[in-house]
């Protein structure tokens, strides 16, 4: 008898707990159900932002901050393996590429990307056909929010081994090149690259590559990779005496540098700066250089060595 009463009590509780739910309207953002064409609805995972029903592109994940975001707020992230589009929406890659705008007539032999006007979109630097040590004029191509070419600036001075780096830390990329010394074109919001010349320095050899590295007490320093007959040497411009770390070829054979040197932090130390890697044609190894300071004078030299970071060679 007690068992029957217990079962009846349970049934009564279940019946009393039943409640009519409102009917959901299909195909409407804000109904709490993620439907076809929607990334989210009303809520999103931590660190992400879901656009509401009253916003443009509702129920889509966005990588842009809301208008009322405070200073220093972090931009919303997209899901893993998704990308942030030019329109501020997160999109999952389909593995295909589609053309945007019309082809750019540039006669480009090399291309580098950088945000030279600080609008958050990547611009392109193109250089004409050159040899390893030939000079060529560069062109910087700026794009609008739809990926269409908006403006092109032709740099008035030829360049050697141009490097894209934010020299002054203003959030806009700059362009540095060796032109009988160092010449920096600073990026500006009005898309006018301003040339800033550094002191001219003389080198005994042919300049092959310009390498930007970050060193303690000197956030951006530039090295020049030189060719001297059958040897390659490294020079720091702007010094009265250039400390060199010469790299001799195997069995005295001439060295041919392959590609742009790769930079990275190879030593796990707060006092260590960036090193760089050189690769040469025909060799079965790469050469890693790390900055070292001499204890007696504090003068910095570049010594071959290996560090804590793996290097992928292809």
Structure summarized in a few sentences:
This protein has 314 residues and is mainly β. Helix content is 5%, strand content 31%.
Walk me through what this model shows:
The chain has 314 residues and is mostly beta strands. Among the domains are: 107-200; 202-314. It has one helix and 20 strands. The strands form six sheets. The chain has a four-stranded antiparallel β-sheet with strand order 5-6-7-8, with no helix packed on it. Strands 9-10-11-12 form a four-stranded antiparallel β-sheet, with no helix packed on it. The protein has a four-stranded antiparallel β-sheet with strand order 13-14-15-16, with no helix packed on it. The longest helix has 16 residues, at 2-17. Mean pLDDT is 73; it is low at 1-16 and 306-311.
From the structure provided, what is the oligomeric state, counting identical versus distinct chains? single chain
Helix content: under 10%
DSSP summary, beta strand count: 20
Helices and strands, in order, run as HEEEEEEEEEEEEEEEEEEEE
Strand numbers in spatial order across the main sheet? 5-6-7-8
Strand content: 25-35%
List the helices and strands and how they pair.
Layout: H1 2-17, E1 49-50, E2 61-62, E3 82-84, E4 90-92, E5 110-114, E6 123-127, E7 138-143, E8 149-154, E9 163-165, E10 174-178, E11 182-186, E12 194-197, E13 206-215, E14 218-228, E15 231-235, E16 247-248, E17 262-264, E18 275-279, E19 286-293, E20 300-304
Antiparallel strand pairs: 1-2, 3-4, 5-6, 6-7, 7-8, 9-10, 10-11, 11-12, 13-14, 14-15, 15-16, 17-18, 18-19, 19-20
């Amino acid at each position: 008898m007690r068992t029957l009463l217990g079962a009846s009590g349970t049934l009564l509780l279940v019946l009393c707990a039943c409640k009519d739910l409102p009917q959901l309207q299909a195909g409407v953002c804000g109904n709490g159900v993620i439907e076809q064409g929607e990334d989210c609805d009303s809520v999103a995972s931590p660190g992400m932002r879901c656009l509401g029903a009253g916003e443009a592109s509702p129920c889509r994940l966005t990588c842009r901050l809301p208008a009322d975001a405070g200073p220093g707020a972090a931009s919303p992230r997209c899901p893993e393996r998704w990308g942030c589009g030019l329109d501020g929406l997160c999109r999952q890659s389909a593995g295909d590429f589609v053309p945007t705008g019309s082809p750019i007539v540039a006669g480009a032999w090399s291309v580098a990307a950088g945000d030279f006007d600080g609008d958050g979109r990547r611009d392109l630097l193109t250089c004409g056909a050159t040899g390893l040590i030939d000079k060529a004029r560069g062109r910087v191509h700026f794009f609008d929010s739809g990926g269409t070419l908006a403006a092109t600036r032709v740099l008035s001075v030829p360049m050697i081994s141009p490097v894209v780096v934010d020299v002054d830390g203003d959030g806009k990329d700059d362009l540095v090149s060796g032109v009988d010394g160092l010449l920096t074109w600073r990026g500006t919001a009005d898309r006018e690259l301003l040339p800033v010349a550094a002191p001219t320095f003389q080198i005994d050899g042919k300049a092959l590559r310009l390498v930007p590295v970050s060193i303690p007490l000197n956030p951006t320093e530039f090295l020049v990779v030189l060719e001297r007959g059958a040897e390659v040497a490294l020079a720091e411009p702007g010094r009265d005496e250039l400390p060199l770390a010469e790299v001799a070829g195997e069995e005295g054979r001439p060295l041919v540098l392959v590609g742009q040197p790769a930079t990275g932090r190879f030593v796990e130390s707060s006092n260590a700066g960036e090193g760089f890697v050189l690769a040469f044609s025909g060799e079965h190894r790469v050469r890693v250089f790390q900055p070292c300071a001499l204890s007696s004078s504090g003068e910095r030299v570049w010594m071959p060595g290996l560090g804590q970071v793996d290097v992928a060679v292809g």
